[in-house]
Amino acid sequence: MRRKTEMVRSTCCVVLLLLLSVAARSASAIMDGLLPNGNFEEAPDKSQLNGTRVIGRYAIPQWEISGFVEYIGSGQMQGDMLLPVPEGAYAVRLGNEASIQQRLTLTRGMHYSVTFSAARTCAQSELLNITVTPEIGEVPIQTVYTSSGWDSYSWAFKARRSDMSLIVHNPGVTDDAACGPLIDSFAIKTLQSPPSTKDNLLKNGGFEEGPYIFPNTSWGVLVPPMDEDDYSPLSPWTIMGYTKSVKYVDAAHYAVPGGARAVELVAGMEAALVQEVCTVPGRSYRLEFSVGDAGDGCVGSMSVQAYVSHGSVKVPYESQGRGGNKRGVLEFTATDKRTRVVFVSMAYTMKPDGTLCGPVVDDASVVGVHSHRRLLL
């Protein structure tokens, strides 16, 4: 009887351990969407505020702060300047060398994209350092792409561990510590690795896989330029440039040539969309893609130049700002085992409110010429 009781206890312990293991694994898979208190609507206790400055290191629920950090309410003024709050009633401002961070529970080895909103205040040239150790990136916020004064940005990384910290740091040093950028609305998304197929050597040619877009926003998400070693929120597409970005847009708020997502080239020749594909030297291929406008009031003569191998094609598009698109085609012969595909806008276009805009690129494909002809048959 005693032996039977011990066996029952042992079995119960094993079952309990299995349940705890399953619970731990399910807890490690972070859900796509807003981070806990990612929009800062849960306010610090009034005892933790000195005017707008946050005093306590853990005063903002779910966050840890360092340095000169302010809690800014919607409609708040700084001198004669209205401070823009991207979403809801509150945002956070980072002063000189200030930072804010939150612990994340992730799935080790997976790739993630962080989306957040930011605005310049009184400093003319600002950037933010985004870190999830050992990954670190710089997000320039010097150029404003909306008339509201703030934009949503994205940044991607690979989870090296299951428990990591997202750190947002303002490296700026200005005469006025209160001239740092405003930040708001932090969300996360797990990125999947889209495959290439025999029908399309380009991966993610329709741009369906990309950073999180807030469903209640109508301004898209900027994908900033990145170093070659960085992981892109639009992987495997990368953005080549210095400080300018491209804009990731959705069909719910923009005219998209195909599917639910596309890319608007909003920075003229200062930012290019790039991907390398595997090719066979001497073999012929065909590049096809859509060029149009996002239906966002961007009016004017636009054009997209596509470069592949030693060839290029320029696709002009006369935009009325109400949507529409046309196809671009380029046949080329590969000269290497890897061939770079590049899209760049050849003109700078502005809306009547003075904000930058540009042509939309979507539905890009590269196929072997013979394979393409068989598909037509």
UniProtKB/TrEMBL annotation:
InterPro entries: DGR2-like_dom, Galactose-bd-like_sf, Pectin_Meth_Modulator. Residues 33-189, 200-365 form the DUF642 domain. Its main location: secreted. The gene is LOC127771674. It holds the Pfam family DUF642. This is DUF642 domain-containing protein. PANTHER family: OS02G0527500 PROTEIN-RELATED, OS04G0494800 PROTEIN. Residues 1-29 form the signal peptide. It is found in: Secreted, Cell wall. SUPFAM superfamilies: Galactose-binding domain-like (SSF49785). Keywords: Cell wall, Glycoprotein, Secreted, Signal.
